[in-house]
């Protein structure tokens, strides 16, 4: 789960998504056709990883938007051409490396609204390539801040598909809400994750439902409390992250009542 926390730190700074990674042991599982395997969970993780790469590619464009409003409404360089307006921008990438990603190629349209303590934007990808991976669809972000409580949250709603070089396709739809509260130190600074989302890949359907908000401290490498249900083709598996203690353990509970401890 170390990678999840690293993603959460990235989200706090750049408004990208996080990925979900878990593992299961061999005890008490259903038959092989129904079990939730490490490969299945890597599929869930991979989709969010790729989505985050696409989101990262937007960071420089948002920075350039500030300059565009003060001067020219267009920008061209060796990497991309962008046309800015009062409500967003359209950017076309020219097979370049941006913000440390693989080569980026294709078009993205972003529209947004900004308020005093909230902001929202929608990114629409059309044949948008990150390396050999093609992305189509939309991701909408709504961000809210509370200066009095030193906290902010944002909700990501996705409806997108990811096509790989071998023509296999993964699709993702649903909503995730990330929350952050900053205290006087890392121990008192916390993050949370809630939401429901679905992934389709390799003929399987995976649904994730957060039933008790996942929470953690920025001083701990793992999620420390909360629970979720991961469903694969109708099979519901509960993942319980504990009661707040900083450790690398979670409990898996299968439909037949069998349970096991796993390391994150």
In short:
Helices cover 17% and strands 51% of the residues.
Q: What is the number of E strands? A: 14
Helix vs. strand class: alpha+beta
Shape: globular
- Give a short account of the largest sheet: 14 strands, antiparallel
Outline the low-pLDDT stretches: 1-27
Number of domains: 1
Please indicate the percent range of residues in DSSP E strands (runs of 2 or more). Answer: over 45%
Q: Calculate Rg over CA atoms.
A: 19 Å
Count of separate DSSP helical elements: 3
Distance between the termini: 5 Å
Average pLDDT for all residues: 76
The run of helices and strands is HHHEEEEEEEEEEEEEE
Order of the strands making up the biggest sheet: 1-2-3-4-5-6-7-8-9-10-11-12-13-14
- Give helix % range: 10-25%
Protein name: Lipocalin-like domain-containing protein
Organism: Flagellimonas iocasae
Could you describe the 3D structure shown?
- This protein has three helices and 14 strands.
- It is α+β, with helices and mostly antiparallel strands.
- It has one domain.
- The protein is globular.
- It comes from Flagellimonas iocasae.
Main traits of this protein?
single chain; 264 residues; alpha+beta; 14-stranded antiparallel sheet; 3 helices; 17% helix; Lipocalin-like domain-containing protein
Strand and helix layout:
Blueprint: H1 2-14, H2 38-56, H3 59-70, E1 74-76, E2 80-85, E3 88-96, E4 104-114, E5 118-130, E6 133-146, E7 151-163, E8 169-181, E9 190-201, E10 204-217, E11 225-232, E12 235-243, E13 249-253, E14 259-263
Antiparallel strand pairs: 1-2, 2-3, 3-4, 4-5, 5-6, 6-7, 7-8, 8-9, 9-10, 10-11, 11-12, 12-13, 13-14
Protein name: Lipocalin-like domain-containing protein
Organism: Flagellimonas iocasae
């Amino acid at each position: 789960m170390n990678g999840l926390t690293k993603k959460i730190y990235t989200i706090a700074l750049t408004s990208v998504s996080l990925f979900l990674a878990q593992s299961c042991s061999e005890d008490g599982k259903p038959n092989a056709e129904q079990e939730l395997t490490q490969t299945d969970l890597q599929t869930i993780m991979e989709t969010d990883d790729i989505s985050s790469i696409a989101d990262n590619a937007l960071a420089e464009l948002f920075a350039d938007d500030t300059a565009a409003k003060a001067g020219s409404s267009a920008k061209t360089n060796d990497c991309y051409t962008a046309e800015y307006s009062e409500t967003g921008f359209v950017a076309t990438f020219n097979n370049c490396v941006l913000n440390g990603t693989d080569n980026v190629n294709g078009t993205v349209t972003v529209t947004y609204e900004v308020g005093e303590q909230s902001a929202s934007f929608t990114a629409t990808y059309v044949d948008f390539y990150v390396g050999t991976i093609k992305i189509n669809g939309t991701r909408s972000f709504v961000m809210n801040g509370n200066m009095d409580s030193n906290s902010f949250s944002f909700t990501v709603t996705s409806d997108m598909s990811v096509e790989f070089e071998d023509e296999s396709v993964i699709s993702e739809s649903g909503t995730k809400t990330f929350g952050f509260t900053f205290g006087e130190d890392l121990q008192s600074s916390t993050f949370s994750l809630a939401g429901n989302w679905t992934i389709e890949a390799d003929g399987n359907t995976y649904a994730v439902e957060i039933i008790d908000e996942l929470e953690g401290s920025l001083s701990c490498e793992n999620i420390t409390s909360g629970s979720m249900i991961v469903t694969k083709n109708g099979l519901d598996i509960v993942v319980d992250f504990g009661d707040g203690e900083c450790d690398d353990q979670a409990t898996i509970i299968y439909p037949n009542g069998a349970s096991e401890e796993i390391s994150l």
